[in-house]
């Protein structure tokens, strides 16, 4: 007996090269030039690249050194996250003119459920176009959008006509679209998983569709069931306006490697203070503290401790971080330190003992 899958009208809005586009908007002299946000220092990493830079192969998460090699004329600018957040909030206000079901994924992208919306416009395609027009009118920036029956397909679709475009996958087109799709383009399938699938003879959605749930779970564990469902257009995750983070963290990369725990304590104090400042506005606290250490040879180690109570203050976080730092000898000099807090509370309680704490298928046009 098959389960009837609810259809929704989901829009995924993704700003085009957001950070870089903001910089080009605020400084017209940068328009049309290859630009990278971040990445300018010796150990810098590119946070975002303009489309002009992308034509040279410059991508986010690439080292600034490699980016400069690929594009000698590349211009680096320092990130201005407060400015990006300011514009992001303007964009979210536009979203809420249409629906309260908005799930931000980051400053530059979000899911919207417009199955029922504030404007009464029956077409999700028209709503997406209106939203993109409003974003351009109010911010001078372009956005792309994907429209379909669930978040998974909308996310894939938003990338198909970038920049400044949109793509609708209506219900009747979903099976053919997914079957023809290269497996690497399935959202969430990274390079390693794609290579594993290729070795198993899975190159397209059509190949994936022929695999049994037992086969997929054998080779991909719990993710196998996910792959079995999404290639059939089944993705039941709703748009969640108040999506809670699983962890909150802060970290620092140092211009010079640190070789002694003594030199690291001052850095950890600053990181703990930054972590507290991120927790306080959200009234969050956590029980599991994780210390992240990246050595100069790029090996990454983590050490964690779970407490029987929630903490959120810098002093308490630092106390546990120190304990974790001295837990075992350093294996090399250190280039990065980070602290994160997970196992977060759902109540607005801090530094206190922890408490043991049918949809109808819709028929509509897109």
Automatic annotation (TrEMBL):
Residue span(s) of domain UmuC: 10-190
UniProt cross-references to PROSITE patterns, sorted A to Z: UMUC
InterPro entries registered for this protein in UniProt: DNA/RNA_pol_sf, DNA_pol_Y-fam_lit_finger_sf, DNA_pol_Y-fam_little_finger, DNA_polymerase-Y, DNApol_IV, PolY_HhH_motif, Rev_trsase/Diguanyl_cyclase, UmuC
Primary location group: cytoplasm
Homology family: Belongs to the DNA polymerase type-Y family.
UniProt cross-references to NCBIfam families, sorted A to Z: PRK02406.1 (NF002677), PRK14133.1 (NF010731)
Name the record gives this protein: DNA polymerase IV
